[in-house]
Design a protein that fits this description.
This protein is an alpha/beta fold and 339 residues long. It has 14 helices and seven strands. It binds 2-acetamido-2-deoxy-beta-D-glucopyranose (NAG) (2 copies).
């Protein structure tokens, strides 16, 4: 990087000499201005303001998150998830604004397919690193794709360990997203655990500024049941609070034999900062997804199309037809058909 900037700055100084060189009789004051301008320019050209984003992607450190932008993204793109919205907005803004956090931020996102877990991860990635999921500081691991074979767990463990270490060494504000956590081998989870803890450093590397997102369907049934009970009691969905789920989630899943995740001491040791429930989506939310998707693609949002796409989804439970069984997941594909 320094070498690259050096070349550019050198060329620029040459150009300035060419421009000002022949003029021998410049008054000192304009020479002074020229020198000041040139040094300001070279200072600028070698400063992160100039090359970061233009020439290379730089690791962010120090700048707090733009809370307004994050809020706007969550408001305009995520529907029916008031708890996820509030929790993520607060947790992430607070964490990124803290110059010396005591532990990495660990969020565990739970809910059925299509409720917005991957979608929110993308929004988080874009707000933490400008290039979002394409950023070299954002790392996505999907259990069934990256760690498919149980007999290679030892290899995966070594790889994961060295990747996390290497990437956090390069950029303390690295973001790691683990999808399909409920399918992850417990041993692999054990390999990640030390990074999530309160240690000041491990082998000279501090992980305290990193962000870890765990995505899983685990607890989706409990979240649905809770939301449905609320609805049946005639209460407003927006009145559901985090505390209505927190215990259900941590205790409920701890006892679930199929989620290896919960056998580990993640919960015991309180390494997860927030359990974030993603509620099942109703028809009106699916409609909002359709309208947002149309806008995103440059079409005029059309209520009629939104109704038709939303009506194509299947809803459960069968007697109530309340929640979309794929959330908003198939909205883009279904919309193709109408546009
Ligand atoms: C934060 O984001 C808002 C909305 O996108 C934008 O208008 C504002 O300029 C941003 N602020 C900073 C400091 O970048
Ligand atoms: C960072 O993580 C990626 C996987 O996302 C890996 O391929 C790469 O080798 C890691 N970098 C370092 C320096 O460890």
């Amino acid at each position: 990087m320094a070498a690259l900037c050096g070349v550019r700055v050198g060329q620029l100084l040459g150009l300035l000499a060419l421009l000002f060189g022949p003029v021998k009789a410049l008054e000192p004051i304009s020479v002074g201005i020229a020198i000041a301008a040139a040094s300001a320019l070279t200072g600028y050209l070698s400063s992160p303001d100039f090359y970061c984003g233009r020439l290379v992607e730089c690791c962010r450190d120090g700048q707090p998150l733009n809370a307004t932008a994050l809020e706007a993204d969550l408001r305009d793109k995520l529907f029916g998830q008031h708890l996820a919205h509030k929790t993520i907005s607060r947790a992430l803004t607070g964490f990124m604004g803290n110059p010396s956090p005591k532990k990495p931020l660990v969020l565990s996102l739970h809910g059925w397919t299509g409720t917005g877990k991957n979608f929110v991860s993308k929004i988080i990635a874009e707000n933490v690193h400008k290039l979002g999921m394409k950023s070299k500081f954002v790392h996505l691991f999907v259990t069934t794709a990256h760690f498919p074979h149980d007999n290679q767990i030892r290899l995966y463990k070594d790889q994961l360990h060295s990747w996390i270490k290497g990437n956090v060494t390069n950029c303390p504000r690295s973001l790691f997203i683990f999808d399909e956590m409920d399918k992850m081998h417990p041993e692999l989870l054990d390999a990640i655990k030390p990074f999530l803890d309160y240690y000041e450093s491990l082998d000279g590397v501090s992980y305290r500024k990193a962000v870890f997102l765990f995505l899983s369907n685990a607890g989706g049934d409990l979240i649905t049941r809770q939301t449905l009970d609320f609805w049946k009691a005639g209460k407003s969905r927006e009145d559901l609070q985090l505390k209505d789920f927190e215990n259900v989630l941590s205790i409920g899943m701890f006892n679930n034999i199929n989620s290896g995740f919960w056998h580990s001491s993640l919960i015991d040791k309180n390494l997860i900062d927030f359990f974030v429930p993603f509620l099942p989506l109703e028809l009106k939310h699916v409609k909002m997804c359709v309208l947002a998707e149309m806008k995103e693609r440059g079409f005029v949002p059309d209520e009629d199309v939104a109704v038709r796409v939303a009506n194509e989804m299947t809803y459960y439970p069968k007697d109530l037809n309340l929640f979309s069984d794929k959330g908003c997941k198939t909205v883009p594909v279904k919309l193709d058909f109408y546009l």
